[in-house]
């Protein structure tokens, strides 16, 4: 049976799309057949993060309108053939698609893909309802900020009301030094408020911005960055493996050797 997971948050800009792109690519790399769906109609950007923007011909809307077949709209990743993107239309509003239509699209995808990740838009309106309609699991993404955590809490309630029971948490953009200085909520603080199982913690890492701009998920890096390792761990936990949380305050492996090379070539 396919796993259908919505990536959601309530608040915008906390890293839903970043997490979808990285988990999608990492799952595909580990041998799973993965479809990622951009459910952010109107403000799509999952295609950019995956570097697939130039290869979009059709979108989910064209499939629903009967203007193309589903497999024609799917953009297959050349680097990782196990990964496919179902793009959203850029020029349509969130009202142009209905929850039942999303369910139909996802049902068709389950025939081929065993992981389906749905990148939800911000908010709790129509776009959010479309994104959660087909999902059986949810990953809540939040940053350790009170406004993001409060929105996440609200969304968790809505997911429960919609019968999505497997809800897990990613805390994104953690800055250990700020937590230590008492200037940022800790993992424990956030977990204490939301009380759902923790899937992982992603550090605030400038490599995320580099990877976004390149259209290359972190997992494709030759030498994994700290955030890249954190995403790799989340991917393992999602597949049922027990991986301890990383100590984010420690420099990434290889950091000292790189430093040494710089100063002592
Ligand atoms: P959302 O989909 O929730 O709106 P995005 O994934 O688009 O959020 O991320 C918003 C911005 O935050 C992007 O510019 C992204 O590069 C940046 N970002 C996300 N996660 C991290 C991180 N762990 N470290 C640094 N920057 C990040
Ligand atoms: Mg987004």
Automatic annotation (TrEMBL):
Domain annotation CobQ/CobB/MinD/ParA nucleotide binding: ranges: 5-218
GO biological process assignments: division septum assembly; negative regulation of cell division
Metal-binding listed as a keyword: no
Keyword terms: ATP-binding, Cell cycle, Cell division, Nucleotide-binding, Septation
Gene Ontology CC terms: cytoplasmic side of plasma membrane; cytosol
Top-rank taxon, per record: Bacteria
Binding locations of ATP: 11-18
UniProt record similarity statement: Belongs to the ParA family. MinD subfamily.
Function recorded in the entry: ATPase required for the correct placement of the division site. Cell division inhibitors MinC and MinD act in concert to form an inhibitor capable of blocking formation of the polar Z ring septums. Rapidly oscillates between the poles of the cell to destabilize FtsZ filaments that have formed before they mature into polar Z rings.
UniProt protein name: Septum site-determining protein MinD
Organism: Vasconcelosia minhoensis LEGE 07310
